Amino acid sequence: MDILKKLFPKKDPLPATIETACSIIDRFAMASSANIDREDLARYPARQFNVMAFHYGAIEYLSQRLGLDETQTLGVFVVFMKTYFSMPITETGSISERLQGFRDKPDERRFFEAGLDVFRRWDEQDDQQAPLQLGELLKKY
């Protein structure tokens, strides 16, 4: 039996902290998408990028709180992208370009910063209405 374990080792699960971060971001994403028209979002890539930036802001805040490094933070974002945007792993190479846009493009930067703030209020102040701000921001921009 030991030889089989050596030949076919179990895949290491995600470290507990990353798994926890993914779970928290999943709950936050569900709460923030409650008042978003998903069909409308699918028609406009710029809005999709804004939603990605918003959630990356939340991921960055959470990662700092949990003490995740840059690679782990990126891993949480990749899981988010795969889950909510059905992005194949083959397309994740463009994620670094996407992240740069969150910092360089004014609209995406605005959503990134809003995601940081909204997640903080949701997490620290238990403001359950805060995630709904994403829908309001999408109506403005």
Please specify the SSE layout and strand pairing.
Elements: H1 2-7, H2 16-32, H3 38-43, H4 45-66, H5 70-85, H6 95-104, H7 106-124, H8 133-140
Helix pairs in contact: 2-4, 2-5, 4-5, 4-7, 6-7
Structure description:
The chain is 74% helix and 0% strand. The chain is an all-alpha fold. The model has no long low-confidence stretch (mean pLDDT 85). The protein is globular, with a radius of gyration of 17 Å. Helix 2 (16-32) crosses helix 5, helix 4 crosses helix 7 and helix 6 packs across helix 7. The protein contains eight helices and no strands.
The gist of it:
The chain has helices at 2-7, 16-32, 38-43, 45-66, 70-85, 95-104, 106-124, 133-140. The mean pLDDT is 85.
Q: What average pLDDT do the residues reach?
A: 85
- Give the fraction of residues assigned to helices: over 70%
Subunit organisation of the chains: single chain
Order of helices and strands: HHHHHHHH
Helical/strand content category: mainly alpha
Shape: globular
Total count of helical runs of at least 4 residues: 8
Main beta sheet, described?
none
Question: Characteristics of this structure?
Answer:
8 helices, single chain, 141 residues, globular, mainly alpha
